[in-house]
Amino acid sequence: MPSAIAQSHPNIAFIKYWGNRDDLLRIPSNNSISMNLDGLSTQTQVTFDSSQASDELILNSAPVQGPALKRVMVFLDLVRQMAELQLFARVESQNNFPMGAGIASSASAFAALALAASAAAGLKLSEKDLSRLARGGSGSACRSIPGGFVEWQAGQDDDTSYATSIAPPEHWSLVDCIAIVSQEHKATGSAQGQALAHTSPLQAPRLADAPRRLEICRQAILDRDFSAFAEVVEQDSNLMHAVMMTAVPPLFYWQPATLEVIQTVINWRKDGLQVCYTIDAGPNVHVLCLEQHTNPVKESLEQLPGVEKVLIARPGGAARLL
Ligand code: PMV
To answer: Domain coordinates of the chain in residue numbers?
Structure first.
């Protein structure tokens, strides 16, 4: 029975992906930049087995049915087609962090699945082709294939839309202190939300300005320039949430505690601490700082009412086979 196990990390976007030029192929409307999150991981085993009557998904030791299984089956079809394979698969996956709450669990899920399923099917894909394949499961998953600091080139079509590393994990000791304000599964998933992006009158100006933000962010990472980085990362997150909030129907991922953390981080920076925030499609706040400030930032975040706990993640490596 051909089987493979892969491990991957979720990623936090500094310049966000929100909205597609082509929803079917998941060709995004703009490039995005992210960092893989070491310490948080998904481990997935895929076994193609002639005794399986259909595909099976076991997530954190519990069997999964419904839309999540369907999404995995559609993805496995892509791999079967590439490998000219007819067998059904058993997929067993474990996450060591909360899912569906603004920590990109779909990113690490489909990155690990792309690697494990393609290897189990006997395909030896390049990093580019793995990234393209992972994109088929979830857009941001293509950024969890390469290591460290990563840029997803939006491209024009299936062949040209994939992510590459812009700097290895050890390039910059940036730390993501993730303030968990809720572990509940979000009501509107990012795939549904992405499809609404074009209904916001703010999406077009957000996209028009994206090349400027991308350039500033890429350069700030290369120069390890925290001040330039902080300003553009917060602005980009605010722009994406403005688009979400002004879509039809509107999407509000924030909770009161989300705004409390945002305001606290802004005040800390005014007081001279090198810290900034960014928020994905959920209420939790990713508070970014430099390694030497990790403990005070973590401890101060833990004191805030509404913050349940703080997860710490450093720059993570590429998806890999175990
Ligand atoms: O890949 P998706 O469909 O889960 O979308 C991810 C969207 C954000 O996390 C909000 C932004 C991003 O670029 O990761």
So the answer is: 3-170, 172-315
